[in-house]
Specification:
5% strand, elongated, mainly alpha, single chain
Length: 455
Amino acid sequence: MPVKPESIHPIEYRYGCERLKRLFSVENFYRTMARVELVVVEVQEKYGIIPKGTSNALKNALSKFDVHEVFEEEKKTRHDIMALINVLARYMGRYGEYIHIGLTSADLRDTTKVLIIKQATEHIEEKIRNLILTLGKLAAKYSDLPCVARTHGVHASIYTLGRKFAVFADEFLRHLERLSEVKKRIFVGKISGSVGIHSCLGELGEQIENEVLSELGLQVDESSTQVISRDRFAELFLLLALISTSLDKLATEIRNLQRTEIAEVEEEFLPEQVGSTAMPHKRNPINAENVCSLSRILRGLTISALENVVLWHERDLTNSASERILIPEFFMLLDEQLSRMTRILNRLRIRKDNIRRNLELTEGMIFSEIIVTKLAIKGYGRQKAHELVRRIAMKAYETRASFKELIMSDKTIRQYLDEKELERIFDPKEHLRVAVKRTEKIIRKIEEVLGEKIL
């Protein structure tokens, strides 16, 4: 999208997809509120609360009104919902007196927010599913490719590259599960009047609310006051921040694996792409860094989401301004993260030569735990074996001697393990059966959840 000189927020031109931009547009917000009002009018008309013909008049108004008219009206009313009602009423003739009966502003505003959040959540869900599928395919492709596992940033033990991708895929499967669980608490609306107890229309109002929200695909928030309780929103936003943080974690792994000293993976770098104005050689993981950077914003937004839970009595307006900002930002920035990460993974370069080089870098030290275990099983004693292998490893570090050669030539070790057994210990493929098995198990889970074939 071309940058407009008058643009202020990067969401306007840099981040987020066009679908979400339309969803969170002011135009869509007002038209969705008008749609909620129409469903209320249709149900009220059915019960004889308002005259027949009101719903047709409102439909006619919806086809004619312009959001800019609402903006102009708001300059007079200093109230956005009253401005909308006034503009709609003008197009309805005598029927304009029969809309918004028994309602309060939050009935339209909060129910509309949830309707938009519902669509945005479904969009994010689909993006997560695409990401999981991409991770699953990488897990399957590299399920038995040996690599080094690192703890504290230091070579630890034998691992597989496929296992790395599978572990991340499983984490995002849990996020799908969490989203599914919170829907029943999040996708609720209210058409219950000024403080949520149908003081104007009584039990008939309650019946109308049930029918309206059912038509809109929402559940009734029976504990609403003038507003829907913001613990519901906060729960969703905390989950979105958690998803964002998992993306940060995945991007950080890619950035670390792309470090010059490791260089096991690399983001796509286009032929004419420039990494630095000063250093022509640079090939930087800029997309993974972008994912990490956006995650900092989303985690910060959770503070506002939590503070919005605390409102005075049956409501105040302290949540309003922050929600105008944080709701679209949460979804559009998370959407950007998911899109970028899926793109990174689909175009990720796997440097098998460097993976093999790093595997051999410590000349067998990554098999030290296995040597200790084998010695213990043979009867040498686990603690003694640990100290013996530790001393050999420290000698290899200090003298730069080959750890494998020191192990192979140690007389004590050779009393318990012959050359053939030791060679098997130093063969990476000998120790990956469970890694491959568990990777394939996660892949089958992905296939079951997504209904897509990978293996």
